[in-house]
Amino acid sequence: MIQRHLLDNPHRVTLVATADGEYDAKLQRTEEAALADTKARLSEEEVAGCVAAALELQAAQEAPQRVDALPTLRVGSAVARALERWP
């Protein structure tokens, strides 16, 4: 059945795909237009709040991370010392 329906099947499809060379530029223009539209609907206080929140986020991301807050496993607690044999 596989031989007849798949391997010996004479039907073929040739698919050729080409990349859009302007895709990134179009995407950038679309995002800039959406951002400009959203910014035009915001008040000055809302824009200032967004800028402050972005600066706060950037500062938090660039701050050194506390590695001691991460959970850790010790080899003694993670791996059993004795092997268990099952019949």
Short structural description:
This protein is mainly alpha-helical.
N-to-C CA distance: 43 Å
Oligomer: single chain
**Alpha-beta content class:** mainly alpha
Helix count, DSSP H or I runs of 4 or more residues: 4
What spatial form do the alpha-carbon principal axes imply?
Answer: flat
Strand content: under 5%
Bin the helical content: 55-70%
Radius of gyration: 29 Å
Q: What is the chain-wise order of helices and strands?
A: HHHH
The major sheet is characterized as:
none
The average pLDDT value, as a whole number, equals 88
Instruction: Count the E strands.
Output: 0
Low-confidence runs of at least 5 consecutive residues: none
Q: How would you characterize this protein structure?
A:
With 87 residues, the chain is an all-alpha fold. It has a domain of 44 residues. The chain contains four helices and no strands. It is flat, with a radius of gyration of 29 Å. The two termini are 43 Å apart.
Describe how the helices and strands are arranged.
Layout lengths: L1 H6 L15 H19 L2 H19 L12 H4 L9
Characteristics of this structure?
mainly alpha; 87 residues; 55% helix
